[in-house]
Design a protein that fits this description.
Length: 659
């Protein structure tokens, strides 16, 4: 809580959040209108109300929602339902739009179609936040953000994208003012970062301890930690808020669903990219095991959310995670997953009730669904998108003999329904909703690039906040392929796009200690090839030569997109692909004051360790006392380098986004 309390005093804590639409009903009869006829009260809710949490006299309202203490147990107040240990308002049924994307030809709904130029923010936890802050600051200086049709973001990139899109804060307060490398003394970079960067310094472990102590169900702890670290300083942390693309959409949603008249909706701030796709992963139905052959991308946006395509245009199978053969359930065969999307305010609800011979016929129609048991809030979106441990925990329960209840309790969940595939790739109905384990977008694609290639973007600028240094130019230049041993030491989110990925012992995490492969810890990148293998040496050669010359590692190439039926990508077109790769920019380092330059180069007695890994800070436990937090100096210096990388390669960005 300390991080949120500190941030509450910042200038970014505006009293009036224009991005939050709190539209309320006007008094009956106002301005001469006739009072509405009285309506019968809704029937009493029959949903479960007991949370299972013990209490003495009272319950913790802020943690569990509206509750009262009855016979030593917390019970949801009338009109509220117990949803996995927390009380949410019973919303009955919603009227909403659904969109079967897996159609012929595939068609994305709403603001997600017609994307030409995309800015893609990769995962990487707090390192990604710091790097993205600098990139965005430079793009604002160059006045290029108006040329961004959409942002795609994963995990730590989603932390940055959510704040940039929805926080009603001035650009200077949010991203910070332009920096001068020569002014970045150790004292200067030790000052608190601008508002976005400050979120990367928030400590996660005290928040985890707080929520566990207060009795919050374990599978909600990560979402609550993330909302406090990233969203609370901007007033965007409500778990009962909804998403919508604009005020007009909110008016229509409220008109069709009067029970939402007092609900909070977060919409993108004016003059910033309106379309932002933040990706997670649908792992498997609760109690079943995800694998490379059933985990699919789960994509959230302000307007529509869901898994747009059936993997390989087919159904999938799941195996149980239960170890004890006496308790083991049979596997699930021929299960549909994905195929389309639903308006985000209704995501997590029931399958459409309208009966039609073809689900495709409901596109652009209003259908009725059971309202989601809890809202798809911005907090929930970025919590799911960054729930890195979820895939590992889900897998570990069937690899390591640890009680599955202890592991499964930590994994986020969501109710998901799907379109059922019929002949010729057409939807023929709906598969009823079921509870699924959901996880980090990085479980299936930490780059964020594939979501935009699915939408046939013509230009992609990829902000690659990697923790991997580039190889030497002699290892990649003039090569027709990259050696297997070298590829295994490169960033898998990059190599997978070029068909070089194969599961290996996970040397950068828990797998190194336990002898587990990437797949064992929930990394499923086997189906991510969208570019030709022969193109990777060329791309890496461009970047390696830039680094060795002391230049910013930003390069552009036109690449042929390959067919990828797993992701629903038809291929057959050329993509202008810009990579902004996080590696040491010696041209920037040379301009730093000597004391800072020495610290970066490991020659400082003052701060011998703080900047030693610059710019490749670890995603977790870079600093011993916290799981995710970086220091002020680490954030400010990486952000400044990212800013000057963009400025040094301004011509490339101008060509991509327009002059």
């Amino acid at each position: 809580g300390a991080a949120g309390a500190d941030a509450a005093g910042d200038s970014c804590q505006a009293d009036d959040h224009a991005s939050v639409l709190q539209l309320r009903s006007e008094a009956a009869g106002a301005q001469g209108e006739r009072p509405a006829a009285p309506t019968a009260p809704p029937p009493p809710s029959s949903c479960p109300r007991r949370t299972g949490t013990r209490c003495f006299l009272s319950c913790k309202q802020g943690i569990l929602g509206p509750t009262s203490c009855s016979q030593g147990k917390c019970v949801c107040k009338p009109g509220y339902c117990n949803v996995k240990g927390v009380c949410f308002k019973d919303m009955g049924k919603f009227k909403t739009k659904v969109a079967p994307v897996m159609n012929s030809p595939a068609q994305f709904p709403g603001e997600q179609k017609g994307i030409k130029t995309a800015l893609v923010l990769s995962g990487g936890g707090s390192r990604s936040v710091a790097f993205c802050q600098g990139v965005l600051r430079a793009l604002e200086q160059l006045q290029l953000t108006g040329g961004v049709d959409a942002i795609s973001a994963v995990s730590g990139g989603a932390w940055a994208a959510s704040v940039y899109t929805y926080a009603n804060v001035s650009i200077n307060d949010l991203l910070g003012k332009a920096t001068e490398p020569a002014a970045l003394t150790l004292a200067e970079i030790a000052k608190p970062p601008a508002a976005m960067g400050k979120t990367a310094t928030a400590r996660s472990l005290p928040l985890a301890a707080h929520y566990i102590k207060e009795g919050l169900p374990l599978n909600r702890v990560w979402v609550h930690m993330v909302k406090d670290m990233i969203l609370k300083p901007f007033g965007l942390d409500g778990v009962d808020a909804y998403l919508a693309p604009d005020a007009k959409a909110v008016e229509r949603i409220r008109r069709d669903n009067p029970q939402l008249k007092d609900a909070t909706f977060h919409v993108p701030v004016a003059n910033r990219p309106k379309t932002v796709v933040m990706s997670g992963t649908t792992l498997a139905p609760v109690g079943y095991k995800p694998s490379p052959d059933n985990a699919v991308s789960l994509q959230f946006s302000s307007d529509f959310s869901g898994s747009p395509f059936w993997p390989d245009n087919a159904t999938v199978d799941y195996q149980t995670t239960v170890l004890d053969i006496n308790d083991r359930k049979p596997g699930l065969k021929g299960r549909a997953i994905g195929g389309g999307m639903v308006e985000s305010f209704a995501w997590g609800g029931g399958a459409p009730e309208r009966s039609k011979s073809s689900a495709a016929a409901v596109q652009e129609d209003i259908v009725e669904v059971e309202a989601p048991s809890e809202p798809l809030s911005l907090a929930r979106v970025i919590g799911i998108s960054s729930a890195g441990p979820a895939g590992a925990l889900q897998q570990a329960s069937s690899v390591i003999k640890i009680a599955k209840t202890a592991l499964g309790a930590l994994i986020p969940e969501g109710d998901i329904w799907s379109y059922r595939p019929g002949e010729a790739g057409q939807p023929v109905g709906f598969q009823k909703e079921a509870s699924y384990s959901v996880g980090d977008g990085g479980n299936i694609d930490n780059s964020g690039v594939l979501a935009m290639v699915q939408r046939k973007a013509q230009r992609v600028v990829w902000v690659c906040a990697t923790a991997y240094a580039l190889p030497a130019s002699e290892e990649v230049c003039g090569k027709s392929i990259i050696k297997r041993s070298l590829a295994q030491n490169m960033d898998p989110m990059l190599t997978a796009m070029f068909g070089y990925y194969e599961p290996s012992v996970n040397v950068h995490g828990i797998g190194d200690m336990l002898g587990l492969t990437d797949t064992d810890v929930g990394q499923f990148l086997q189906h991510n090839e969208i570019f030709a293998r022969v193109d990777l040496p060329k791309v890496m050669c461009d970047l390696a030569k830039l680094r060795e010359a002391g230049n910013a590692t930003v390069a552009s190439r036109t690449l042929a997109v390959q067919e990828n039926p797993w992701w629903g990508i038809p291929g057959g077109y050329d993509l202008e692909f810009v990579i902004d790769y996080n590696d040491k920019f010696e041209g920037f380092v040379d301009q730093l004051p000597r004391e800072t330059r020495d610290a970066v180069r490991g020659q400082s007695w003052a701060v011998p360790f703080e900047l030693a890994k610059f710019p490749h800070y670890l995603t977790c436990f870079q600093n011993v006392l916290d799981a995710t937090a970086l220091t002020n100096a680490q954030v400010n210096l990486l952000s400044a380098q990212a800013e000057h990388m963009v400025l040094a390669a301004a011509d490339i960005f101008r060509r991509a986004f327009g002059s």
